[in-house]
Amino acid sequence: MLTRLANPARFMRASGAVLPWLGLASAAVLAIGLVWSLVFAPPDYQQGESVRIMFIHVPAAWMALSVYLFMAVASAAALVWRHPLADIAAQAAAPVGAGFTLVCLATGSLWGRPMWGAWWVWDARLTSVLVLFFLYLGYIALVNAFDDPGRGVRAGALLAIVGVVNLPIIKFSVDWWNTLHQPASVFRLGGPTIAISMLLPLFVMAIGFLLLFMWMLLLRMRTALNERKAQALRLYGQAAQLGESRRRAAAAPAASIRGTATRAGAGG
Amino acid sequence: MTAAFWGLFRRDLRLSWRQGGEIGLVLGFFVLAVLLFPFGVGPEPRLLARIGAGIIWVAALLAAVLSLDRLFAADYADGGLDLIALSPIPLEVSVLAKIAAHWVTTGLPLTVLSPVLAILVDLDPAAIPVLVFGLLIGTPALSLLGAIAAALTLGARRPGVLISLLVLPLFLPTLIFATGAVEASLVAAAVRPHLLLLGAVSLAALPLAPLATAAALRQALE
Fold it and tell me: Quick one: residue A118, left, alpha or beta (phi over 0 = left, psi -120 to 50 = alpha)?
């Protein structure tokens, strides 16, 4: 499947067919999830209505981690197998992941103000997610820092793989350190500690975020491929123009020489 | 291979010694960065004693970052790096020799100088050995992790700024555990766990960073 799609032309056809359906599905699922979580889900007995921020915050945090992992795996595939679409996928995913991380940090901050009494606390979970945000930014900056785009992509791929050490730190920070951030309550041994009436809209939102990511990823990958195609055409056009003028320049003196030769021949 | 390791190590030391000034520049930056804080937050001894260790560590991080761009850049520019990569000894070993030389010319002088600065910021004398020992076992991680960023940014348009953006997030664990150790010694709590974690960061970076750095150098020289 991945090898079949390695052909950019085939990828463009397949992604073009899937793209509108992905967009529609993500819009629909997110609409259902938002109405369910913001209107119908019960308020928390302790946190009251502000628990509804969690329906954005938690899926955004999941996506922030997953997108980074996706980016690292795609980077590894680009380095190991030179899969032609893998580096494009990694590059396309980075700003989206940075966006999810920012949403996660911002919503957490909005929730922290009424609950903890502070916009920001320096505990391990928050700090490590902030580091994740800077890893995304560093990746984007590094990829764009070279005159040769290939260099930037390869350097960025290595950085993405190095940054993976941060993912387990984020995931287990709430267990290793005594943090203000609550410990895991969904994916834990012994089952989730959240009421099913809140868990279901949470999962709907998570699926919506996942579809949104896939839609944006394909859209950005297609844009990147089209940009490459446009640049290749521009270069081809310039080369053709250059070749044409060279041929004319080369043809002109040759004609004059031939002209003198014929004249000389006529004279002789 | 050992001979080659020490040969490269000595060469880098000699280069940075004879080019002169570079160690002095880094140390000068370190001292000045620490001295700025009493002006910035006010000269009250109690406050300075409270935040002194953090100031010294942050200044050490910044000084280390400042010195990173010269780690491979000169050899990359004059082609020496190509020869090092072509030589029969593994690039990882050469990288480790260069990192060791970098630590001896930055991390070690910073560590040696730190007790003086600790006195300047009124740090509790009991905490000074913890600070110095923390710098001694923590600064190798700065050279090791920094080498990855220095290799990744070879040939980039603005390597200096880029290195700090890439590397400062990676330095956070070292900073957290090192200042945690000093904090603990100030309140007479157990220092050992913090120092163990600090050493663990350096030890984990010791085998992994040369691998990543060598990979980055290979793609830079490709």
Answer: beta
Nearest to B145 by CA among B111, B162, B165, B168: B168
Q: By three-state DSSP, how is residue A44 classified?
A: strand
**Contacting B residues, span 201-220, partner chain A, CB-CB under 8 Å:** 212, 215-216, 219-220
Query: Tokens representing A18?
Result: 């899937």
Distance of CA A41 to CAs A34, A35, A48, A52, A203, Å?
A: 10, 9, 11, 8, 12
The model's confidence at residue A265, banded by pLDDT at 50, 70 and 90, is: very low
Residues of B in contact with A149 (CB under 8 A): none
How many angstroms separate the CA atoms of A142 and B167, rounded? 12
Q: Which residue has the tokens 């521009």?
A: A234
| Tokens linked to A206 | 């998570």
Cβ atoms of B169 and A138 within 8 Å: the answer is: yes
Tell me the whole-structure pTM to 2 decimals: 0.82
B153 touches chain A (CB under 8 A): yes
Contact A160/A132 with Cβ under 8 angstroms? no
Say how far apart CA A40 and CA A34 lie, in whole Å: 9
CB contact under 8 A, B169 and A131: yes
Distances from the Cα of A183 to the Cα of A55, A104, A192, angstroms: 17, 16, 11
Q: Do A138 and B148 touch (CB under 8 A)?
A: no
CA dihedral B61, B64, B66, B70 (to 10 degrees): -160
pLDDT tens per residue across span A105-126: 999 888 888 877 777 777 778 8
CA dist B130 and B118 (Å) reads: 11
CB A125 within 8 A of CB A167: no
Cβ neighbours for A97, distance < 8 A, ≥ 6 positions apart? A63, A64, A67, A68, A70, A71, A136
Please tell me which of the candidates A141, A145, A154 has its beta carbon nearest to residue B219. A154
How close, in Å, is residue B63 to chain A by CA atoms?
20
- B20 vs chain A: nearest CA distance in angstroms? 30
Q: Token pair of A126, please?
A: 């928050």
Distance in angstroms (rounded) separating the CA atoms of residues B175 and B57: 7
Instruction: Give contacts of B158 with chain A, Cβ < 8 Å.
Output: 145
Q: Single out the residue of B70, B57, B69, B68 nearest to residue B30, CA to CA.
A: B57
For residue range B92-115, list pLDDT tens digits in order: 999 999 999 999 999 999 999 999
**pLDDT above 70: percentage of residues in chain B:** 100
Name the average pLDDT for chain B.
89
Task: Provide the phi-psi class of B90: left if phi over 0, else alpha when psi is between -120 and 50, else beta.
Answer: beta
Q: Are B95 and B221 in contact (CB under 8 A)?
A: no
